[in-house]
Design a protein that fits this description.
- The chain is mostly beta strands.
- The protein is built from one helix and 28 strands.
Length: 324
């Protein structure tokens, strides 16, 4: 009888835990606390914390929004794992050992698979959750391969190489080995990258010279360079409608906003100490900015360009994701 009662209580607890996941939900990685934090955007309250590996920097979601994948970048010691997290149960399902691959960073989901960079190895890898294996790996030959984006049909993968001052375009096609790598020279320290919603342009913000390179994805060439005058750009994101671009300036303590059509800076909004990660909600009404030295997520209204709130999440927030 006692065993039946215990089993019933455990089952009820599991249902309660699943019910606690808000819809939508904001996911935040606290890289200084080695955890994923689940936030209810409506109440701005934290409803769960899930331990990860050391130094989690970036996060991607499965297409159904049920599973989170976290790159454990590491701190003093380079990380070599991915955390796979069940969001409803609020627990780590498994920790994927990447073997010799070190410093997993930028992550993105495409066609059910997770693409991510491995800085130390100067490469981009792909993890297949269905088989729990790395099923593709391609080197860039460049230093500090950091962020990654993938186009809609997965025929092109772009990655920023901070220390080589390049963006690498990896293209699938009738080439030896099935892929071709093209190095695109940019300004100094390209780090933040994003594709325009229509896929025609890739923008990368330079962390060391304050400019932005706009790359024509049809030709893999820089079509223009924008003097954004940032002190140390960190992340760059297009709004869902493709009309604006947001850049977090870590040293400037602000978010720089550009008109994607005119390619000019339109606004600079002070948000706090060392803004890093940027997440824009699907309807484009607001952005969440991780101010890592303040240990808070700043809410920026994109209609008024006013800071409307702050959510304390924990130590050194950075990467974020949105569960619909």
């Amino acid at each position: 009888m006692k065993r039946l009662l215990l089993a019933a209580l455990l089952l009820a607890a599991s249902f309660l835990s699943a019910a606690q996941l808000p819809s939508p939900a904001l996911l935040v990685l606290n890289k200084g606390a080695n955890e994923l934090v689940i936030v209810d955007p409506a109440t701005q309250k934290i409803i769960g914390r899930v331990p990860t590996g050391e130094g989690p920097h970036e996060i991607a979601l499965s297409s159904d929004g049920k599973t989170a994948f976290v790159g454990n970048y590491g701190a003093q010691t380079p990380g070599s794992t991915l955390s796979v997290i069940d969001l409803a149960a609020q627990k780590e399902l498994r920790r994927v050992d990447l073997g010799a691959l070190r410093r997993p960073h930028g992550l993105v989901e495409a066609a059910g698979k997770i693409y991510f960079t491995v800085e130390v190895n100067k490469a981009v890898a792909r993890y297949d959750p269905a088989t729990d294996k790395i099923d593709w790996l391609m080197g860039t030959g460049q230093d500090a391969t950091h962020m990654v984006v993938v186009n809609k049909d997965q025929s092109k993968v772009y990655t920023s190489n901070i220390a080589s001052n390049t963006v690498t375009a990896l293209e699938r096609g009738q080439y030896p080995g099935g892929w071709r790598a093209t190095q695109i020279a940019t300004g100094k320290g390209p780090e933040a990258i994003d594709l325009s919603p229509d896929g025609s342009e890739l923008w990368t913000a330079h962390s060391q010279d304050g400019a932005v390179s706009v790359i024509d994805t049809a030709t893999n060439t820089v079509k223009t360079t924008i003097p954004a005058e940032t002190k140390h750009s960190n992340r760059l994101k297009f709004t869902p409608d493709g009309k604006r671009v947001l850049i977090s300036d870590a040293e400037g303590g602000e978010v720089v906003i550009l008109d994607a059509q005119t390619k000019k800076v339109t606004n600079r909004v002070k948000v706090g100490n060392v803004p890093l990660g940027i997440l824009i909600v699907p309807d484009g009404s607001r952005a969440y900015i991780a101010t890592t030295q303040d240990d808070v997520i700043v809410i920026l209204d994109l209609n008024t360009l006013q800071v409307t709130g702050k959510i304390p999440t924990g130590k050194n927030p950075d990467g974020m994701a949105w569960v619909k």
